[in-house]
Design a protein that fits this description.
It is an enzyme of class 2 (transferase). The chain is of the alpha/beta class. It is about 40% helix and about 15% strand. The longest helix has 20 residues, at about 690-710. It is globular.
Length: about 1000
């Protein structure tokens, strides 16, 4: 009898999760009802999937509204009706159209208008007027009194109790950005919108028996069905060519074509592996999945886009031959069963990274190629988080900002203590923030997922159109996979932009040098300069290997070969580190005797990593060969590690089987527990070996470019937004490699940073508060008039505000005209107050009145402070800005190798700080600093040091601590650390006065 119910997927209106709504219906004895969220189908798949578990027959539709004003409720008679609803809703959401008063003529949809509607007779066969229990008595006095065959029951269900209604009001206030006390009643639902028992509901309509009969007729004729679960075939695009046979011939022929490209002397092993993979791919129905990825890569190659294929698909020789990945599974002995096996239900993962500049075009190509009706970006649900909810509720409740800030410091786990401590509004804010936690706020775009379906995407969902410009589904990855839609992952990263830009910059700056084949990675593996960078951890700017933790690991492992870097790329992951196996791996690498401690079975399964589980497929190997699980059970365990279980019960079942089989295999309980602990510690963090290998390939490409063309490479790093560190570190690194760094210049600089020989001219886009419009105006007018001769010429040519001009002057962009910034600032004020603007630059110079200014003193150190304010960092040596710079007993980074175990004092400019926690939850830091000579020094700050000497932002610090060393990696265990103050303006004024006196 309920044809208008709302879940919390009626964003910022509804409050009930789907399961809570179903529990409420089950409790009230409701055998069937319709989920009709407001302008949303986000909950439909979950509702259809879960309703039978509660003994409820699901119906689905949409409550179409303009704001909170209901226009009509649409109920799908069947799957075709659901598709009609989705098409109609999507059209209005995409174009931001108002919902009309009258629905279009649907073929498979019931339309129910509210009783208050001004609709006139006649109604179509599928159209009805809905009557709320509160409106029953009004029917006899309405125009519908003689048309009861067109009336049905339409009670609205939005809440379970008063608390739900309170949450609803808070959500409406948040949505309207208004105080709760000023929320208009028209923006609220009715607190009586509760679910009554079936008997109570029938009793409320006892005077309108025909209405009940009409409602029961609608309910009985609505049937919706979808297949859920991996026991059914996937619903992705079934064929690439239109024929399964042609698909297979195409993938086979393309693989055979790829063999000569990948292997100079292909062995029988390669052909055998290929035949085995193709057979299973065909049996599992994944041929089209591979061909779609191949098509995307083919387009990228034609466009000369750089990409990296990774994920479990990188374990496949088919992917390697189709050029989806650059990882040779034969060379790396990649575990085939991690890639695919007959027990695997879902397609293997292909995560394809493109440059952040290219991904949008790749996405456009996918939509254009496979059809906008069959292609869609995957959504995620942006949910209220506790702290954000506290802030939002604080605002709608009218709390002052300082009180809101104080409340946001409350940790979620301390909520019970806080509720006892607080009173009044503050208590209510915390209480309801806890209740709001996890409720969906709106749809967002999944980081990478694209759906390509065999049936039109509207068969499954309506779509919305975010600012990104491509439509998104109304459900997330979990619902998509449940219904058999598996995503294609198209990601972006700046590392690939660095490689692409580097090659162009190298060609421009070194036109006589031969072209670099960036895909010839096997040559890079043997390059001595690359090996030197790796083993010494000098990989600043290089993808995935530049962080302090990775530099430390590379030094400890002396990693100077491909397989070593592949292992390091996975060993560094939190799961391996957490289990203690990262340290064990290092110890077994450095101390061969330690390798004997590995269990013989584990040592045999993982000889490369000395019996230590490092990769995801190691879990499958151990579960299968050590614990005796079947490959299907082992794959379920792997999926559980990736957080893909639907329930804790499923995971518990695999855990029980693991220990049962271990006992049957004769392993003692302690050993089984230790191995299980290692598996559990991975907890979704471990990489597949092919994935790590893909990362290592990109790292090698970056390392080669940095080893042979460091300045050009670092320019590309700067232009792609840096990496792990702030931009200033890469500028410093370029200077350490012999570059002369020039601040932005109005006559030379481009939008991005450029290099000429060994001189690097920073780009205009590095200036934080310089508008893009100003940048484009400057460059456009410079192209027209040529070099700017003086400030008057610039102002006359470029349409610029005084504030924007002052930024350029203060950063030194006019130094090619006049190096005295103070004089230029005076002139700017005088000239801009009198200059008449022209839309077009003049072909002839006009004379301006000359002004004589007094001599203005300038201290070069002032430039450093201007740079810090405008760029966020000084271009000059930060140590010369320090007031009373300590010089006695200061150790440099290059000298600590001789002072192991000794106390030293150093000066360091803070580059990076990583917060972490000890096993008991206390806070500690790992720091990276640059000393006065420009070298790196790494620091460890244990909890007592952190409490007494916390980091206080960017700047120079005086650090005292003990030099420690482990496996050739040196660092400072900090005991005392104090920030050293920079000079201030009074010091400059004193210097200016002193200058005048001496003159």
């Amino acid at each position: 009898m309920y044809l208008n119910t709302h879940s919390y997927f009626s964003f910022k209106y509804g409050v009930m999760p789907i399961n809570a709504l179903l529990e409420e219906a089950q409790k009230k004895g409701i055998p069937a009802f319709a989920l009709t969220d407001i302008n949303s189908t986000a909950g439909c798949m979950r509702f259809i999937r879960d309703a039978p578990k509660y003994g409820i027959r699901p119906m689905i539709g949409v409550d179409f509204r303009n704001g909170t004003k209901q226009q009509f409720v649409a109920i799908a008679k069947n799957n075709k009706g659901f598709q009609e609803i989705n098409i109609f809703l999507s059209k209005h959401l995409h174009n931001k159209l108002e919902i009309p008063n009258r629905a279009p003529q649907f073929e498979n949809v019931y339309i129910i208008y509210p009783f208050s509607s001004s609709l006139e007779l006649p109604l179509y066969e599928n159209e009805y007027i809905g009557i709320d229990p509160s409106e029953v008595l009004k029917v006899a006095f309405s125009k519908w009194k003689n048309h009861q065959h067109k009336l049905i029951a339409l009670p609205t269900v939005s809440f379970r109790h008063k608390q739900d209604f309170n949450i609803h009001r808070l959500l409406r206030a948040i949505d309207n950005n208004t105080l709760l006390s000023k929320l208009a009643q028209s923006e609220e639902g009715n607190p009586s919108n509760l679910m009554l028992s079936k008997s109570d509901l029938l009793a409320s309509y006892k005077d309108l028996p025909l209405l009940i009969k009409n409602t029961e007729h609608i309910i009985s004729t609505c049937k919706i069905h979808f297949e859920f679960g991996d026991q059914f075939p996937h619903k992705n695009i079934n064929t690439y060519t239109g024929s399964p046979e042609k698909d297979y011939e195409l993938i086979r022929s393309k693989c055979l074509e790829g063999i000569p490209y990948r292997y100079k002397k292909p062995s029988f092993k390669i052909y055998r592996r290929l035949a085995l993979e193709l057979k299973i791919i065909q049996q599992k129905g994944f041929v089209s999945y591979f061909l779609v990825n191949w098509d995307i890569i083919n387009y990228a190659l034609r466009q000369k886009y750089f990409y990296v294929g990774r994920g479990s698909g990188a374990n496949s020789i088919v992917a390697y031959l189709l050029r989806i990945t650059d990882v040779d599974p034969i060379e790396l002995d990649l575990y085939f069963e991690r890639f695919i096996n007959l027990y695997r239900k879902n397609p293997p993962d292909f995560d394809i990274d493109f440059s952040w500049r290219d991904r949008e075009d790749i996405t456009r190509y996918i939509f254009d190629t496979f059809g906008h009706d069959h292609t869609c970006l995957l959504a995620t649900y942006s949910t209220f988080k506790f702290k954000a909810a506290v802030r939002e509720l604080g605002k709608v409740c009218g709390l002052p900002p300082h009180e809101i800030s104080a409340l946001t410091m409350t940790r979620e786990e301390d909520i019970k203590k806080a509720l006892k401590k607080e009173d009044g509004l503050a208590r209510l804010v915390l209480q309801y923030a806890f209740l709001l936690n996890g409720i969906p706020s709106h749809l967002s775009v999944h980081a990478s997922g694209i759906i390509i379906s065999e049936k039109p995407i509207y068969h499954y969902t309506a779509t919305s159109l975010p600012p990104k410009g491509f439509p998104i589904t109304h459900f997330d990855m979990v619902e998509a996979e449940d219904v058999g839609l598996f995503k294609f992952d198209i990601l972006s990263q700046r590392g690939l932009g660095k490689i692409k830009d580097s090659l162009a910059i190298i060609k421009e700056n070194n036109p006589d040098h031969p072209t670099i084949d960036i895909h010839d990675t096997k040559r890079f593996f043997e390059d001595e300069k690359v090996k030197d960078l790796l083993r010494n951890g000098r990989a600043i700017g290089c993808f995935y290997v530049e962080s302090p933790a990775m530099r430390m690991l590379l030094k400890k492992l002396k990693a100077d070969h491909y397989l070593g870097l592949v292992a390091a790329s996975s060993v560094i992951r939190p799961g391996v580190a957490k289990s203690g196996m990262m340290r064990e791996y290092i110890l077994r690498f450095r101390i061969p005797e330690r390798r004997k401690e590995a269990h013989p079975v584990l040592a045999e399964l993982m000889p490369e990593t000395y019996g230590v589980m490092v990769y995801q497929e190691d879990v499958i190997k151990v579960a299968h060969y050590f614990a005796g699980l079947t490959l299907g059970e082992a794959d379920r365990l792997r999926r559980g590690m990736s957080g893909k279980y639907r329930s804790r019960a499923e995971f518990k079942e695999v855990e029980i089987q693991f220990f049962k089989r271990c006992k049957e295999m004769g392993h003692d309980d302690k050993l089984a527990q230790d191995v299980w602990f290692q598996i559990m510690s991975f907890a979704g963090y471990a990489f597949a070996k092919g994935h790590s290998a893909s990362y290592a390939i990109e790292s090698y490409q970056c390392l080669y470019l940095k080893a042979h063309y460091p300045l050009e490479y670092l320019v590309s790093v700067i232009n792609n937004g840096g990496g792990f560190y702030r931009i200033d570190l890469y500028i410093h690194e370029a200077r350490m490699h012999g570059a002369t760094i020039e601040a932005p210049c109005i006559n030379i600089s481009q939008k991005e940073t450029v290099i000429k020989g060994t001189i690097i001219y920073l780009g205009l886009d590095i200036i934080n508060d310089l508008d893009q419009q100003t940048t484009y105006e400057l460059l456009d007018k410079r192209n027209f008039v040529g070099t700017f001769n003086n400030l008057e010429h610039f102002i006359h040519s470029v349409d610029i505000s005084l504030e924007q001009l002052k930024i350029l002057i203060r950063i030194g962009a006019f130094r090619s005209i006049n190096s005295n910034k103070k004089k230029l600032l005076w002139q700017a004020h005088l000239l801009l107050s009198k200059t008449t603007r022209h839309n077009q630059p003049s072909l002839f110079e006009t004379q301006q009145k000359k002004y004589d200014l007094p001599a203005l003193y300038h201290d070069p150190r002032e430039d450093g402070f201007d740079e810090m304010e405008i760029l966020g960092f000084p271009l000059q040596n930060p140590f010369i800005l320090v007031k009373n710079l300590p010089i006695d007993n200061i150790t440099l980074a290059q000298d600590i190798f001789h002072k192991k175990g000794k106390q030293v004092t150093m000066l360091g400019y803070l580059t990076a700080i990583k917060n972490t926690a000890t096993s008991n939850g206390s806070r500690m830091y790992f720091g990276t600093f640059i000393d006065q000579a420009g070298d790196f020094v790494d620091t460890v700050h244990f909890p007592p040091s952190v409490r007494k000497y916390p980091v206080r932002g960017k700047g120079v610090y005086k650090i005292t601590g003990k030099v420690v060393e482990e496996f050739d990696f040196y660092s400072i265990e900090v005991s005392i650390m104090e920030k050293v103050h920079f000079i201030n303006m009074e010091d400059f004024e004193f210097s200016a006065e002193k200058e005048r006196v001496l003159a």
